[in-house]
Design a protein that fits this description.
Strand order of the largest sheet: 1-4-5-6-7-9-8
Distance between the termini: 29 Å
Order of helices and strands: EHEEHEEEHEHEE
Helix content: 10-25%
Strand content: over 45%
Number of helices: 4
């Protein structure tokens, strides 16, 4: 296992973070089935294995990161040695004491090595220390690695938005109580 240091993001990190390959590869997706009947709407998701792996483009503009990071409540960078290898963006929302994870990105060369887990753990600690009650993760329905990470950490599916992202992808929401 590699040693991963987590620290608050600084302005000097941004150009490297924007340069990451933000796309992901997936062999499966969570497919939405929406049925409307008089007096009800029924939504269900099921994992569907694809005939081949697909590359999924990141739903946010990574080059807007330099402008966007100052509007975040907190942003952490994961480092291996002095090299930034991942980041997580957090946004406090409303009186409900909820923190949203709006971005969780690990550079391709360091994926599946614990960086995403370390960043998510840091986010949970930060939210708990600020007395927040819930953490919510948002992700594309095609991003099976993110779904698996959420499930590994005990997050539960709590909703979706059919055309959430600019590219019209479905967003999935997973949440977990902090305390």
């Amino acid at each position: 296992m590699i040693e991963i240091d987590i620290r608050p993001t600084v302005a000097n990190d941004l150009s490297r973070l924007m340069g990451f390959d933000h796309s992901i590869a997936s062999e499966s997706v969570w497919q939405l089935e929406l049925r409307r009947e008089p007096g009800q709407a029924i939504a269900s998701f099921r994992e569907v294995r694809l005939p081949r792996s697909i590359t999924i483009e990141y739903p946010h503009n990574p080059f807007a990161l330099a402008d966007d990071w100052v509007r975040k409540s907190m942003m952490y960078t994961g480092l291996v040695g002095q090299e930034p290898v991942g980041y997580i963006s957090l946004l406090e929302r409303g009186a409900a004491s909820v923190v949203w994870v709006t971005d969780l990105v690990v550079n391709v060369t360091h994926r599946r090595k614990g960086v995403g887990s370390a960043l998510l753990s840091a986010a949970q600690d930060w939210a708990g220390n600020r007395s927040h009650r819930r953490l919510i993760l948002e992700m594309q329905s095609k991003n099976l690695p993110a779904v698996r990470l959420a499930q590994k950490f005990g997050y539960e599916f709590c909703g979706y938005n059919d055309h959430y992202y600019n590219n019209q992808d479905v967003a999935l929401f997973f949440s977990r109580n902090i305390k």
